[in-house]
Amino acid sequence: MSFFKEKKKNMRLNDKRYLRPPKVGLSLTGFTLVEIMIVIMVIVLIAAIAIPNLLRHRLRANEGAAITSLRTLSAAAQSYRAVNPAYPNDLNSLWSGLSVPYIDEVMAGGNRQGYDFSLAGNTGNFTATAIPQSWFVSGTRAFFVDSSGIIRYTTDSSTPPASSSPELP
After folding, report:
1. pTM reported for the whole predicted model
2. CA-CA distance, 165 to 52, in Å (whole number)?
């Protein structure tokens, strides 16, 4: 028998061996479609629980930052009034043209962590407000502070916060 005929015979035998079905009881490696679907469903369930909590905590963080910023504005306005004959007219009065500014440049811009800030003042009083840029996305409450230093809030997007709004607890 020639070398080529023997090699061809061996190749056919080898091919037949690999074409046979696996023996009964022999485990195959890999995941079934059902197993993969169960894993995907568990991941979706965990995400459905976690994402709303994450968004709620982000809203609380934005509101906490707005309250802290209003306290800073109140203290800055009081300090400004101690040196000047009147409260500042706007946020820019607490920052620009001063050798030592009362607030930073970001706060003077009027936007911080999803809230819009405004300040108005005269000789005897000032008011500062923090209103969410997008209701129920960046915050669920708007805040107000005046020269009394008491921070008040409202949850109504159609009514701006005022001195008649409820106090923060």
Report:
1. 0.73
2. 29
